[in-house]
Amino acid sequence: xxxxxxxxxxxxxxxxxxxxxxxxxxxxxxxxxxxxxxxxxxxxxxxxxxxxxxxxxxxxxxxxxxxxxxxxxxxxxxxxxxxxxxxxxxxxxxxxxxxxxxxxxxxxxxxxxxxxxxxxxxxxxxxxxxxxxxxxxxxxxxxxxxxxxxxxxxxxxxxxxxxxxxxxxxxxxxxxxxxxxxxxxxxxxxxxxxxxxxxxxxxxxxxxxxxxxxxxxxxxxxxxxxxxxxxxxxxxxxxxxxxxxxxxxxxxxxxxxxxxxxxxxxxxxxxxxxxxxxxxxxxxxxxxxxxxxxxxxxxxxxxxxxxxxxxxxxxxxxxxxxxxxxxxxxxxxxxxxxxxxxxxxxxxxxxxxxxxxxxxxxxxxxxxxxxxxxxxxxxxxxxxxxxxxxxxxxxxxxxxx
Length: 401
Description:
Strand content: 25-35%
CATH topology of the largest domain: Gyrase A, domain 2
Largest sheet: 6 strands, mixed
Shape: globular
Structural class: alpha+beta
Helix content: 10-25%
CATH superfamily of the largest domain: Probable tRNA modification gtpase trme, domain 1
Number of helices: 9
Radius of gyration: 22 Å
Distance between the termini: 42 Å
CATH class of the largest domain: Alpha Beta
Order of helices and strands: EHEEHEEHEEEHEEHEEEHEHHEHEEEEE
CATH architecture of the largest domain: 2-Layer Sandwich
């Protein structure tokens, strides 16, 4: 049975239509307003608060904390400085991705780990022989994403500290002036925009929400739900577990297993790092064979074809404002040979384009490659043309500024 997050006392009254969804045992708001477009606009044009408390969170400490992190993740954790954050996948022994998330180096012998799925058992299994402590802090630490072009101004208003020096994928401790709430702040997020994630003791969560909302009032801050978050993460070309790929832990056949190189995470795999990591041998073998049989690409769908598919039924063109997470077949540009599938697709309000993430064979990985995507109107299946385009679809300079 789902429960409210630590912010529920504040978020529930703001959810006008009580639109909730389940996220790891918590209620997460789908949208606070009548429609999520105003929340999308807050993320892209002002500032937004997104409750991300349901993320699984772990603290790894002790003399061998670095050794455990380096044993599990595909990146070279020995290169992490204190205050640095890595986005990284981690794999099973077959080189298939179990999950992806962030790892923060809080101190020389302390790391903070976030994940979409539970990872306590996996971390414990891989800690054998190491002097390390693993603590599940999911329920003791609330989290909120402060995202948007005015996010920095809001944070500086709330803390009366400058944050222009906190670079992309860095973190530090801070304090919200209202109530003197000690928080951790990381320059991270899932929106592809300027943003921060604020890590808050659960007993101070409601106060922290009030402080950030008060600081953001002059900047047009709004709470944003999962529907708006789904749109911005697609624009940013970010994958979603159990939508764009299946965790190796949940896969029931080989087709549902994905290596990092199939998910556009090849740059996050340090095959030659000094220490071994789970799945390295399998990934080296895959690399030696020329890579996996599938590649993640971004595609732009032809609006003219979408319009024609509706015109055949005497209907005006329409596309959902929400992201469609149902897998859709992708075909070679001519003929009926399926070469992949569309995993997430929808309309980008800022780009004014229909976009999607697709898993396709390597022959169609190159930019400019032509594809054909199944498109259904009134129960009748048709095809629309699609073109492989660079990821991310939207690359805002302020994200890294």
